[in-house]
Amino acid sequence: MALDKELLDILACPKCKGPVKLEEDSSGLVCDACRLRYRIEDDIPIMLIDEAEEI
Questions:
Q1: Model's pTM, two decimal places?
Q2: Which pLDDT belongs to residue 49?
Q3: Which residues of the chain have pLDDT under 70?
Q4: Torsion angle of alpha carbons 13, 19, 20, 22, nearest 10°?
Q5: What does the alpha-carbon distance between residue 2 and residue 35 come to, in Å, rounded to a whole number?
Q6: Could you say which of 6, 32, 33, 40 has the lowest number of CB atoms within 10 Å?
Q7: DSSP structure string for 15-45
Q8: Would you state the pLDDT for residue 52?
Q9: How far apart (Å, rounded) are the C-alpha atoms in residues 24 and 55?
Q10: Enclosing H/E stretch for 5
C-alpha cells in the first residue's frame, strides 16, 4: 500500500516547513530546500529531523 495522495499533500519538512516529494521508488520523502531524505518504513513516513539522511 502506497502513501495516500491526500497525506502527501499535507506533509511538510519538519525542519523548514517546506514541501516534500515522494521518491520514484516510494522509499522516502525528499525536501529539496534542506537536502534531506526522510525514509518510509511499512508505509509510514519517519519525519524526524534526527533520523533524516542528507542528500
A1: 0.88
A2: 97
A3: 1-2
A4: 160
A5: 23
A6: 6
A7: TT--B-EE-TTSSEEEETTTTEEEEEETTEE
A8: 98
A9: 15
A10: helix 5-10
Provide the grid cell at 51.
Answer: 533520523
Give the integer Cα–Cα distance in Å for 1 and 12.
Answer: 21
Q: Within 13 Å, how many C-alpha atoms sit on residue 47's CB side?
A: 20
3-state secondary structure of 53: strand
pLDDT for residue 5: 84
Name the one residue in this structure whose C-alpha cell is 523548514. 16
Domains of the chain: 5-54 (2.20.25.10)
Q: Which three cell numbers stand for residue 36?
A: 534531506
**Residue 43: all three cell numbers together:** 508505509
Q: Are 20 and 29 in contact (CB under 8 A)?
A: yes
